[in-house]
User: Fold this.
Amino acid sequence: MRLSRFFMPILRDTPKEAEIISHQLMLRAGMIRQESAGIYSWLPMGFKVLKRIEQIVREEQDRTGAIEVLMPTIQSADLWRKSGRYDAYGPEMLRIKDRGERDMLYGPTNEEMITDIFRQGVKSYKELPRNLYHIQWKFRDERRPRFGIMRGREFLMKDAYSFDLTAEAGKHSYNKMFVAYLRTFARMGLKAIPMRADTGPIGGDSSHEFLILADTGESAVFFDRDFYDMNWNEFSVDYDNVGDVAKVVGEFTSKYAASDEKHDTTEFEKRVSEAKRMSGRGIEIGHIFFFGDKYTKPLGCVVQGPTGEQIALQSGSYGIGVSRLAAAVIEASHDTAGIIWPMQVAPFQVGLINLKVGDAATDAACADLYAKLEKAGIDVLYDDTDERAGGKFATMDLIGLPFQLVVGPKGLKDGVVEVKTRAGGAKETMTAEAAVSKLVEAVKGKP
Ligand code: ATP
Ligand code: MG
Assistant:
């Protein structure tokens, strides 16, 4: 993409209304624009990041065997009356009437609808287990929308729903999502600590929130220092292997980690030695929940079991804040100059800076590099504008692409260009050819 033809409304000054760094940087980098409280347009730069995050989430869900669907944003109130949540939900639910005076709502979540879909579509235990998910906009009329898209009113969520015959099988479905979440967040460069959360009527170990540490987080968190040394890499497990999956989950759940609502000081002190007791603040990016037959019973979601009896299914729901993640990644990865995108979610992988637009040799060298990188499948943002060099550098640092490729007449005279790595700021000069190989290898991996 040539910057001269792109749409990236950069702000030089920090907008006063933005209290936290991710909100400031998203506005400054021209990623989002507020339309009304907690409701945002995603401008091209932001939208590209959102799509990348969404795709990682999708790939990791698919890997577990979950199946993607798409349910509507607008729902009928009827189903919610059956589950009892229409009245219970409160003012966070945006309630609407259609022209026929029917009660409708903008979905804050989809347990009722998916349970009804499943009820109609599945009759026998032989069709279990299943996990259906979608990535769809939600609306919650939050009391205090704030921090930009971090706590929006309209936000993009991945929500998955598992259905099993027995609680034991349901536990495996839950554990698969647990591992998928670890993998998903690790791919975005995030260390998300699973913390036990409120479980409601089921009790036990059946709800976890995934939080990343950040000073601006809304929850206070308490955890074992050992989490820092955990294996956060893309560990691979065989999702069909119940024991394997449970083992990974056990490694994480055996260590103490809780957010303020579930924190128990006595237990913390008993289980974690003083030197290892950590506390701080965290941002919730995912939440998984096993709730048995809480929705399947009232909604009549039953199947015929092996001996002919009707059995209410065991289900769980699993949410990821897809749009919130864009902000969470920035909270975890930035410096005073701007954003530092991890490769996997970067809107473009390389920013190509032409230091002297109009100089024939520089223009030709840039055009050649641009074509070669694009041909290798790298997303390049080519700054071909006539802004002065200082401004171009500041903009590239602000938008945080993993690599900058700087081309000017001086270097070209010596036959070199400069490659800057945004994280850490290391600069290297090399031939244009070497730069292409280096960048292709860094983005695409060794050939
Ligand atoms: P919170 O405690 O932050 O209000 P929640 O527990 O109500 O969130 P869930 O119903 O668990 O949220 O939703 C699943 C995920 O959706 C959350 O883990 C979070 O990442 C994201 N999410 C929830 N509310 C918002 C919001 N208002 N704006 C952006 N993302 C949100
Ligand atoms: Mg939650």
User: Anything to note?
Assistant: The longest helix spans residues 167-187. The chain is about 35% helix and 25% strand.
